[in-house]
Every structure is written in C-alpha cells, then in structure tokens.
Amino acid sequence: MRILGRIALGFLAVLVVLVAVVLVRTFTFKAPASGDVGGIKVAAAMPVDVAGAAQRLSQAVQIQTVRHQDRAEDVDAEWTRLHELLAASYPAAHAAMTRDELASRTLVYTWPGADKALAPIVLMAHQDVVPVTPGTEKDWKHPPFGGVIADGAVWGRGSIDDKGSLIGIFEAVETLAKQGYRPRRTIIVVSGGDEEVFGQGARSAADFLKSRGVKAEFVLDEGMAVLNDNPISGGKAAIIGTAEKGYGTLRVTARATGGHSSAPPANSGGVVTLSKAIVAIADDQFPLAFRGPGAEMVKTLAPDAPFAVRMAVANEWLFGGLLTKQVGATPTGAGLLHTTIAPTMLKGSPKENVLPQDATAWINYRIAPGDTSDTVMKRAKAAVGDLPVELAWNAAPNEPSPVSSTSSWSWRVLAATAGAVSGAPVAPSLVTAGTDSRFLTPVAKDVYRFQPVEFSLKDVEMIHGTNEHMTLKNLEKMVDFYGRLIVTATQ
Predict the structure, then answer these.
(1) What would the pLDDT profile of 90-128 be if each residue is shown by its tens digit?
(2) For this structure, is 76 an active site residue?
(3) Which of 221, 233, 312, 390 has the fewest CB atoms within 10 Å, counting from its CB?
C-alpha cells in the first residue's frame, strides 16, 4: 500500500507541475513578432470623395470585361472602354505616371520616385471579371452589370473582385497627384487583363519589369481582407496573405475497348477503373500539419482568443494534435494546413448506351507551401497503384509561392497601415486561391495579398457569386488605405 501511495503522490506531483507549466505558458503567451510594427509612422488619413469614387466604380462595373473559359467569347472592346474610363476619370494620375500596355490588355503604370536608389513598390489590381452564371441573373438584387448605387453600396460583378481595388488605387493616386505629391520611391501599378483565367498578363508584366531591372521592395495584390468574425478570436482582424498555394489539375485517364452497353466487360470497363482511381486518390489525403502561414495566423491571434484556444496554442508541444484537428475541422481551416484534393470534372461516353473508349477525370490540387507538384504526382501514382490509368498534368502547374517576411520593413509598413485603417490586430495567413501576384515573385523581395475591406465570413460567398457589392464604407477605406500606404512607403 505504501508503494501505491508513493506512486499516487508521484503521479499527483507530476500532474501539478504539468498543470502549472501549462498555465504559466498560457498566461505569459505572446503573439509572434509579426504583430510588431514598431518604428513605422503611418501617414494621416486621406480625404475621400466617396460619392465621386462610387460613381466611377459604378461606371467601371458597367463595362463587361468578362474573361470566359473560351477566350473567343471575350469582347476586347470592353477593355478599351475601361482604359478610356481610367484615362478620362484620372487625368492627374495619368499626367504623373507613364503607361505601358502589354499582353492581354495588361497595364503597367510607373510614377517615378525622386530617389532612384530606393527600390519601388508595386500595387496590383486586375481588370477582368468572371461571368455571371446563366439563369442566376434574377437572383441579383440589382442587375449584375448595372453598377447600381443603392442601399449604401455599389452593386455588380467586379465591384470587389477586383475593380474596387483598381478604382481605389487610382482614386488615391489622383488625389495625391492633384496635391502635387512627389514620391521619393517609385510606384508601379500593375493591372492584369486576364487574372481570372490564369492568363498571360501578369507574366508579361513580370517579364517587362525584369527587363527594366526592377527589384521591388514589395508587391501588394488582392487575396485577404479584414474579417469582422475571424474564426480564431471571433473578433475583427486584418489578415494579410504572406504566401499563396500552388495550383495544378491532374488529368486521370482510363483507356478501354469501348463497344455496346448491352455487352459490357466483366469489370464494366473504363468508367469503373476510373472511379476506383478517383476514390483511391481522394481517399489518400495529405496530412494536416500545424505549420506555415496558416498556423502563424492562429498563433498571432491567439492572445485575443478564448482561453482554451490560447492554452492550446501556448502549449503546442502538448496540444498540437488537438489544435490541428480543431483548426482543420472545417474545409476552410483544413485548406490552411495541407494540400487539398478536389475531383471536379468527368468525361465518359458521348451516349448513354455506348461504352467509352476512354474515361477521364480532372482533379484540382491547391498545393500548400512545403509540397510541390512533384510530391503531388508521386502521391497520386502511389495511390492508384496498379490500376491501369494514365496520370498527367492538364497544364503546367504553378508551384506554391515563397513565404514573404513578417519582420521586414515592407511587412511593418503594410501591417501598420492596415492596422491604422481597420483598427484591428494584424496577422499573416495563407491565400488558398490564386492571384496575379505569384508571377511577380522574381521581381520583388516580398509579395503580400490584402484588400482593406471589412467582411463577415458569410460575405465572402458573394465573390464570384450572386449579389457582389462594395459598400461605400469599404470603398472609402479602400481609397484611404492605398493613399496612406503610398505616402507611408514613399515619403
């Protein structure tokens, strides 16, 4: 009994020490250095003509710069109309900047800085928009290309993605140019013409800047925003993308003899083989890992989170598995922590009573930093094993972007400005979609992705969806942010 008593006391002592360690680490936990923006003096708020900006955004939305999957459906004259609108609406900006037009109607503006020794900054916003799904027009509160200003917002496709940013940048540059502002550091505005179809515009801009010897201090594009109900603390947070996932679509093909469906082979042919391959690949998910920009976001916001979250983050050594499981419990959270696998398209026979001679599936991957297209292909091949299928990339995949700094001067300028405009804590994160900015990595030290608009998580559904709209409050923040960022970075 004495021995059992000693064991029990020993166990209790260990438990007390463990609890003490967990509590001390929890109550002394501090966010990573990414929250430190010391030494940066953010420029004063910019006066914004909200009504005028809304009218100009309304006009831009009415111009249908739609990129279709079949590029033959695109109407090039719409890009001409948009370019003419920018020139007419922002004469001071166009007088201050030179303009070059590149592939896919991409525009590159340059506002020369007084000090040529300083590396430039690059601001990005694309011109093109996605189509409106046929038959859904009736679901919109206002016509999707009407640019209607109502209920405190500008309504229409592209009002947020991404003409809101484009107009916001030009409103800021126009105001500064009218005031006679002369930047010390060169400002470059890159506006891609075909971002929505992974086109050539941003690639041509990168080549153009490289030919001029540009190595930007930082690039800022769309990608993340201010969330009023972020899932970590439940409060407001300005989330800045420091990296984005790679993109690739794997084509899986099962060859077969074909023939009449009245005499199917024993295994029912290529469709069954293809189905087995799809299931094998989709069932072999990449493991969740609490690392990278997604984990950095959780750690940065944890001090303001509920006690249980703060305790888990502060004691990752003990609760790491539970933390990963909790963050990865939703598709959005899981997307931050691993490479995702999504079968999206199928093709079989052209007729219901004909066995296909080949059956094909397309599986879309969003490749997390730490993985590559090579590791994805190896995993898919291992998953299908001896199944008689062919695996090939549908097009050359884009690798994950490098992870940009959260301690550099560029980060501190951007984070300080985002915090000043939003009044929210700032955190890095991972962009799970794709932006034009990934192509500018070779010509920049750091690449970031952020729009200074405030959303709830539910609001995000309208991007590429129904009832896309930019509130006038967000439009004002947009112009103010870009103006203050330009002055803070170039004064």
Answers:
(1) 999 999 999 999 999 999 999 999 999 999 999 999 999
(2) no
(3) 390
